[in-house]
């Protein structure tokens, strides 16, 4: 039984951010980065991401200030996905991540499903959708869809797509007897797996094994499956990404691109991205022990990695760390 709240690599930045808030006394000081979080020196007016006194810079992902950052160049892919450019700390992008994994860990959102910001914070507006987003639930494989709770409850939606089974990762959001109701009225099977969108939740250890078993059983019976959670951003996208990586043999980058293309905004919880990445790393090491990522990178001739590599060296030559 894994212990809650001991994801060391993902918890570190969060704790440090808390300490930084406490030290500065206000969120404004941190957001505006008026002072360096490492040496507490005053920053120049036009500089918010780099301290000329101690040469620390600000992590693009967690906001933590440190030296020893690495630069992730903007990578544009042919399908429209792109990785954000910036300095990242070793806890957000582990040093052993290949360039493709760096790009996957920095992959930016493509579009918004929800009209407001975070669905959890939207109050009465939490059901209003962004009208310009592609129709949902989105198809990732011929039998596998990813969506949110609204896609499950909307009458006729599952039937139109031929979906016969639903894997719900947000049982806290729907009635306990939803499984019976769905089966009796619409002939759709529902399995609930408890998962939390919290950065300290071990999704790969606690939610993935039962989710995988349910998906594998439905796959064998030829059912079309919808994986859903409340927003369709973190829990459901993690499970779909893990299925693609573990059971379909996709690379981590390909799977991240697939869920991002499907949902627009996927895995904003960086702890979940790192947990899935660790699963992929273990698999890759087990399959091809030596220098495997070099072989994998050669499969992407059109991905502009060569020019991003050049930009990386250029940025190293012009930047202080
Ligand atoms: Zn400093
Ligand atoms: Zn970071």
What's the rounded overall pLDDT mean? Answer: 80
Q: What's the CATH topology name of the largest domain?
A: Protein-Tyrosine Phosphatase, Chain A
What oligomeric arrangement do these chains adopt? Answer: single chain
**CATH-derived architecture of the largest domain:** Alpha-Beta Complex
Strand content: 5-15%
Bound molecules: zinc ion
Low-confidence stretches: 1-11, 25-29, 300-321
Structural class: alpha/beta
Q: Would you kindly provide a written description of the structure presented here, covering whatever features stand out?
A:
This protein has 321 residues and is α/β, with parallel strands linked by helices. It folds into two domains: 7-36 and 48-95, no CATH class; 119-317, Protein-Tyrosine Phosphatase, Chain A (Alpha-Beta Complex). Helix content is 40%, strand content 11%. The strands form four sheets. The protein has a five-stranded mixed sheet. Strand 4 (75-76) and strand 5 (82-83) form a beta hairpin. The longest helix has 18 residues, at 203-220. Residues 1-11, 25-29 and 300-321 have low confidence and may be disordered. Residues 13, 59, 61-62, 64, 88-89, 91-92 line the site of one zinc ion (ZN).
């Amino acid at each position: 039984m894994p212990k809650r709240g001991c994801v060391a690599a993902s918890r570190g930045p969060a704790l440090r951010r808390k300490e930084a808030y406490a030290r500065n006394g206000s969120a404004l000081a941190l957001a505006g980065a008026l002072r360096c979080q490492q040496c507490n020196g005053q920053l120049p007016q036009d500089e918010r991401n780099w301290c000329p006194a101690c040469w620390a810079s600000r992590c693009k992902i967690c906001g933590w200030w440190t030296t020893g950052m690495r630069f992730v160049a903007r990578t544009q892919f042919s399908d429209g996905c792109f990785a954000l450019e910036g300095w990242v700390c070793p806890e957000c992008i582990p040093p052993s991540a290949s360039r493709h994994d760096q790009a996957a860990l920095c992959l930016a959102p493509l579009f918004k499903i929800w009209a407001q910001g975070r669905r959890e914070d939207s109050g009465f507006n939490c059901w209003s959708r962004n009208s310009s987003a592609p129709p949902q639930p989105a198809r990732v494989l011929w039998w596998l869809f990813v969506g949110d709770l609204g896609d499950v409850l909307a009458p006729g939606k599952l039937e139109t797509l031929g979906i016969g089974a639903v894997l719900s990762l947000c049982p806290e959001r729907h009635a306990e007897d939803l499984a019976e109701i769905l089966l009796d009225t619409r002939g759709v099977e529902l399995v609930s797996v408890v998962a939390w969108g919290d950065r300290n939740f071990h999704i790969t250890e606690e939610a993935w094994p039962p989710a995988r078993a349910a998906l594998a059983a439905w796959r064998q019976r030829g059912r079309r499956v919808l994986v859903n959670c409340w927003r369709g951003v973190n829990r459901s996208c993690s499970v779909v990404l893990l299925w693609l990586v573990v059971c379909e043999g996709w690379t981590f980058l390909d799977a991240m691109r697939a869920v991002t293309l499907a949902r627009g905004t996927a895995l904003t919880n960086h702890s979940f991205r790192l947990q899935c990445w660790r699963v992929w790393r273990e698999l890759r090491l087990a399959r091809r022990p030596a220098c495997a990522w070099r072989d994998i990178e050669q499969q992407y001739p059109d991905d502009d990695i060569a020019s991003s590599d050049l930009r990386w060296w250029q940025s190293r030559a012009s930047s202080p760390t």
